[in-house]
Specification:
It contains six helices and 15 strands. By secondary structure, it is α/β, with parallel strands linked by helices.
Length: about 270
């Protein structure tokens, strides 16, 4: 298995809090330790650096506690960046902040015509774009994604509100291999996944419930929540090297390693 050096964008959780509830993980009455969230995030960033990946950072803004979840800030493939439009007004001001960063970084910019929450719901798997819908990203956005990026888009219907973004129910391990929770998808979407990825690894509900599938893979190493022990064992059986990280404080807002990490694909060679 070959590891691919990755170019990543992250956002320090300086203003992290759970001030509202826009998914089933969020409880504004539960205490949140922002300092602990920062330390856990710094550990994740250091793991990426130790693996040889390049980590860029966007400046966090006050009043945007979910800005740490950089995966929702856009979709970047082959030097093109699709900006986002959030479903919930609490996150709306994150969109222009991320758009400005992409523009300053020199990416070719495209604006969304419909609700589109970036790599939270849009994952490149080989020569296909897997596109989630059902809770956040609008199905109507999938046609625009195909026109902008030129990859066939496979629509996947999410059915469990706990797995409100595609990246909470599915992770791309390499160009041929996925891991996913079958129960998070409609019967038709399960059939599509079986047909396209017959060798995919199926996660258990226990591992999905600690956001074990919200993982980041470079083709050899898989960074995932340390609590997802069963999934980690299955990955090692397949030959992957697993690296556990504790993001339990960020999980209070429904986020894990992938939520904190946006892949910046600058050209076809960096796919």
């Amino acid at each position: 298995m070959d590891a691919t050096r990755q170019h990543l964008l992250m956002c320090r959780p300086t203003y992290f809090a759970v001030d509202y509830a826009i998914n089933p993980w969020m409880d504004p009455t539960a205490p949140v330790d922002t300092d602990l969230a920062i330390r856990q995030w710094e550990q994740l960033r250091q793991i990426y650096r130790d693996l040889g990946h390049t980590v860029e950072e966007i400046t966090p803004l006050p009043g945007l506690p979910d800005m740490v979840f950089a995966a929702n800030g856009g979709t970047v493939i082959d030097g093109k960046a699709m900006a986002v439009q959030f479903r919930d007004p609490q996150r709306a001001d994150e969109a222009p902040a991320y758009r400005a960063w992409f523009e300053e970084a020199g990416f070719e910019m495209y604006d969304p015509k419909h609700v589109n929450e970036g790599e939270g719901d849009i994952l490149l798997a080989g020569d296909h774009l897997l596109a989630g819908t059902g809770f956040r990203t609008a199905h109507a956005s999938h046609a625009q994604l195909q026109e902008v990026f030129g990859y066939p888009v496979i629509t996947l219907q999410l059915v469990d509100p706990r797995f409100y973004h595609l990246d909470t129910a599915l992770t791309v391990l390499d160009e041929q291999t996925l891991a996913y929770l079958p129960e998070a998808f409609s019967p038709g979407s399960q059939a599509v996944l079986r047909r396209l990825f017959p060798d995919a690894l199926h996660a258990t509900m226990a591992d999905a419930e600690v956001l074990g599938l919200n993982a980041v893979s470079d083709g050899r190493h898989v960074v995932l929540p340390v609590q997802a022990t069963g999934l980690a064992a299955k990955l090692r059986d397949r030959g992957y090297q697993t690296i556990g990280v504790d993001l339990s404080e960020l999980r209070k807002a429904g986020g894990g390693p992938k939520c904190c990490t946006l892949r910046l694909r600058q050209g076809k060679a960096s796919r």
